[in-house]
Write a structure and sequence with these properties.
alpha+beta; MobI; 3-stranded antiparallel beta sheet
């Protein structure tokens, strides 16, 4: 039985007060279906927070990519030397992807057009000391100045990848928790 005097959702303090052994009257005013609905709302809010946290991490990685492009463009202009690396940051299927590619232009064809050829650099996950970062050998073939900037960028990317991995772990646990709560309603 539910009494109309209880305002939902309950505050943390109201729930704590209702947990006291002598608070039977307060508990009688609370319906189990209301508790299930409040739990479902909390879970939805958790999922939304995790979505925002992943986007914040991706945005931090994107800002790092912007800095990489800014620094390498300055070096290219001052050295009159082209680099070979470029990077891409995106969120795909609730996963942060901060990847590296090499790129070169082919010789101009008869019409004066050149073609850009890009090749993805594999991270070779799980190899080396840190599975969250590209190994230094991934940047072979790049000029030394570009390798240095890429390695610093990669340190920041690895940090964001670790954060995204934890967000994914939490997301899986929240999903598992939602299934448990849903089975309470059965």
């Amino acid at each position: 039985m539910r009494c109309e005097t209880v305002d939902l959702p309950l505050t943390k303090e109201q729930m704590s007060d209702a947990m006291r052994s002598e608070a039977t009257a307060e508990r009688e005013q609370i319906d189990l279906t209301d508790l299930s609905a409040m739990s479902a709302q909390n879970i939805s809010e958790l999922e939304a927070i995790l979505d925002k946290e992943l986007l914040l991490s991706a945005l931090a990685a994107r800002k790092t990519a912007d800095l990489f492009f800014e620094l390498t463009n300055e070096e290219r202009e001052s050295r009159k030397e082209s680099g070979t690396l470029f990077t891409r940051v995106r969120v795909l299927n609730n996963s942060l992807q901060a990847t590296w590619n090499t790129g070169t232009y082919t010789l101009k064809d008869g019409n004066g057009n050149s073609r850009f050829i890009a090749r993805h650099i594999s991270k070779r996950s799980g190899r080396g000391k840190d599975p969250h970062r590209y190994p230094k050998s991934a940047f072979k073939g790049a000029p030394d100045w570009e390798k240095e900037i890429a390695e610093e960028t990669e340190l920041r990317y690895a940090h964001e990848r670790r954060k995204a991995e934890v967000i994914g772990q939490i997301r899986r646990l929240v999903k598992k928790y939602r299934r448990l709560c849903d089975s309470d309603d059965s």
